[in-house]
Structures are given as C-alpha cells and as structure tokens.
Design brief:
The complex is a heterodimer. By secondary structure, chain A is mainly alpha-helical. In chain A, 58% of the residues lie in helices and 5% in strands. The chains are: A mainly alpha, B alpha+beta.
C-alpha cells in the first residue's frame, strides 16, 4: 500500500463531494489501492473520520449518514482488535468486515450501472424522435400556464392543490342537501377508488372531477375518492387541470402510465 | 389519395416506413406486424434492418431505432446541434449522480421500497425519488407487505425511452458484474 501524506490526503478529500458514506468508502478503497476483501480498516476509518471532520456546517443534514458509517467503521475496528478465539475445526469465524464489504461491493455495482445509464443518456440526448418540436412547445405552454394559472375556458392551467380543494368544497356544499347520517364501516377502500379512477381514465382518456364523484354515493365515499385522487396525483399517475378559476377541474392520465 | 395510383402495390418496408413516419411514439414489431397485415414480427425486424441499411447508404438524416420495446424514427446524432435549435428553452438538465444511482437500483430491484433504496445507497433518497417521479422515470409499482405497507417503486416506459433502451434486459446483467467480483474473491483467497 502506498504511503500517503495524511495532510495532503485530507486536503484533497475535503475538496471532494461524495454522494454518501458508501461513495466515500469506495473512493478510499480505490485511491489506497487496497484489496476490497482485506480492507485495512484502521487506515480507512482514520481517513473517513478526517473527511467527516472536514465537512462544513452547511452539510449537517448529510453528516448523519456519514457519522453512522463512522461508528460502524470504529465498531469493526474494535472487533478486529479483539483477540480471535482460536477456531478449531469449527466453521470459520465470520470476518467482522464482511457485511460492510458486501455493501461496498453492491454499491460499486450500482455505480457501474449508473455510469452505464449516464452513457446512454448522453447518446440519447443527441437523437430526436418525430414530433420533437411539438412536445417541446406543449411543455413550454404547460409551464407558462402553470405560472399564471389563468386558462381561457379550455383546460389549460395546472390545477393547484388549492384549486382542487376549492372545487371539492364546492362539490361537498352541493351535497349538503343530503343530510342523512349513517355510521357504518366503509365497505370501500382507497385502492378500490384508485382502481375506479384508473378504469374511468382508461375508458375515456380523460374525465372531470365532477364525473368521479357519483351523486348516488354517500359523502364518505366522496372523501375516499378525493384521497385516492390526491394519492394518484402525487404519484404522477394523473394530472389535474383547471380552465378558469373556480371552473371545472379536468383529470388526465399522467404521462407515466399512458402506455 | 391520388398518390396511391402507383402501379406496384406498396411493399412491407414502405408500409412500415409510413407507419413509423406517422407516429411519434415507439411501435412494437408485433404492433407493426398487425398493422401491416400479413407479416410476422420477425419479418418486421428484417424489414426495419433493410430500411436502416437503405437510409445509411442514402445518407438520410434519420434512422429507425429500437427503443422501449418498439421502434421509432429518430434523427441521427450528427444533426443534434441543428435539431436542438427548434426549441427556445434550454434542454432538460441531465440527471444528477444521485438520481442515476437511485435509478440504477430501482431498475434492478423493482419493485423496491424507499427503505431498500436507502439501505443500498447509505443516504436518504427522499428528494431524489420525488424528482424521478416528477420526471416520470419512476412510478409507484405497488405496495409492500411489510409494516405500513410501504410504497414500492418501479421504472416507467419513459425510463426506457429516456435512455434509449430496448428493454430492461438491455442493461448489463447483474450476473456479469457478480462474476467479476467472484473472480476477485477467488484471487483474494488464493
């Protein structure tokens, strides 16, 4: 193993940005050119801690993950120092580093795959499918509409959560006439309503908020529908649009499950 | 339909070309075969190979590319500087390293929970996951069985399109990577 001037090493390290503690470990294993299956844990732990100490206060949020790993390294280091019970013909005593090594290897594999994806991304950014210009303009129009939220009749503006709540409140007020109170366990789940909305969108390709709230249903059902709607919007499964302020809210499938 | 008065009936190649020209979403070999009529997916693949050979020979500015399990006409990369000028706004930013790492894990482990992703990356993936869902590269693929029935994530069709992958199997097989490490392990023990 090459001997590294610890001062130079730490200065260089501090200037680097790591995605997380495992990223740092991979870097240390590689730059020290040590065998991943026989990591000199004392050396790596020392350099790891140097890096953690160099972390600026702005990176406090990340520091937790690094500290957790530092604690793991120190624990392994301590275990390594303990006299090894002389193993007879019993099965080999497990190396305290084993679990960590497997994690590092798995992480390295994903780094490799991420690199692979990066190459694909670069190549793909140079080729353009048919309709490229159209969807560029569609996106731009969407962004513009999202900024002002003032559509002209046709559904254009992105419906914000506030818009959605307003529309829902209006629907609920409309239902105020139905004053019957029933206290029963709901025979319907959010998943049921998610499926219901999916079916609705699959059939028609789009729908409106009004159509999803069936007049015949008790209001508790409406609330389940509403929660299902919020959940699906959050996951990008559907998009909500509103033409005019206080206007009808239109529901479209999200791009992620159009196919 | 005055053009169709050509004497020869259109060939499968011409029909496939017309179909791909008229669509901006990838069409599968099976879908194309059904649209052409009396053709099998294998025939469609041959026809597309022949079309691409023609395009190359004729120095056309586009080619038919396999993507997301289907085929799509795309411009050749040499024309990227000009095609980009079609848009006024700057191109969508590249994915961050954190996003790519997370995406790599989702692609291989799907359906996968946030906790599993965090265990592998060793850091929180909250923000990254939200970005990936917003960019429609990752979507909810279901719910886990464990405590609180955690949401499980998977990659989308757009993920394949974004990276120009024909399918998930176009990524390096995990076995290939493991063999690499297994060899090193044996060396280490020797």
């Amino acid at each position: 193993m090459a001997d590294i001037d610890p001062d130079i090493q730490s200065v260089k390290l501090a200037a680097l940005d790591f995605e997380g503690p495992l990223d740092l470990l991979v870097y240390l294993v590689q730059t020290n050119e040590v065998d991943i299956y026989d990591i000199p844990i004392a050396l790596i732990a020392e350099q790891f801690l140097e890096y953690v100490e160099s972390m600026t206060p702005e990176r406090l949020a990340e520091a937790g993950d690094f500290l957790l790993m530092a604690a793991t390294l120190l624990r392994i280091k301590a275990q390594m120092l303990l006299p090894q019970p002389t193993a007879g013909d019993e099965e080999k005593i497990e190396d305290p580093r084993r679990e960590l090594v497997l994690k590092i290897i798995e992480y390295q594999q994903f780094l490799e795959i991420a690199e692979h994806l990066r190459e694909h991304e670069s190549a793909r950014r140079l080729v353009f499918p048919r309709g490229y210009r159209d969807w560029v303009e569609e996106d731009a129009a969407e962004d513009a509409a999202g900024g002002t939220r003032e559509g002209r009749g046709e559904p254009g503006g992105r419906a914000s959560l506030a818009d959605l709540l307003r529309a829902f409140a209006a629907l609920m007020r409309q239902a105020e006439r139905d004053r019957a109170h029933r206290l029963e366990p709901l025979p319907i789940s959010i998943e049921d309503k998610v499926r219901f909305i999916r079916r609705h969108l699959l059939g028609a390709g789009r729908t409106t908020l009004r159509e999803l709230f069936l007049p015949a249903e008790p209001r508790a059902y409406w609330i389940v529908t509403f929660i299902a709607l919020l959940e699906m919007a959050r996951e990008g499964e559907l998009r909500l649009r509103q033409g005019d302020t206080f206007g009808e809210v239109h529901v479209y499938p999200g791009k992620s499950n159009r196919r | 339909m005055s053009e169709s008065r050509d004497d020869a009936p259109p060939s499968a190649g011409e029909i496939v070309e017309a179909l791909l020209f008229a669509t901006d979403e990838p069409l599968t070999a099976r879908g194309l075969a059904a649209l052409v009529g009396d053709a099998t997916p294998a025939v469609i693949e041959d026809v597309i190979a022949a079309l691409n050979a023609d395009y190359l020979r004729e120095r056309r500015a586009f080619r038919i590319e396999p993507v997301a399990g289907g085929y799509q006409i795309v411009t050749r990369s040499a024309f990227a500087p000009w095609v980009r000028r079609l848009r006024a706004s700057p191109p969508t930013p590249r994915l961050s390293q954190a996003a790519l790492e997370t995406l790599a894990i989702v692609a291989y482990k799907q359906p996968v929970s946030r906790a599993e992703l965090e265990a592998i990356r060793g850091v929180s993936v909250d923000g990254v996951l939200r970005t990936l869902v917003e960019r429609e590269l990752v979507t909810i693929a279901g719910r886990g069985e464990g405590l609180g029935r955690p949401l499980l994530y998977g990659t989308t069709a757009h993920f394949l399109e974004y990276f120009g992958l024909t399918g998930l199997d176009a990524l390096p097989r995990p076995e290939e990577l493991e063999i690499l490490f297994a060899d090193r392990e044996r060396e280490g023990e020797a």
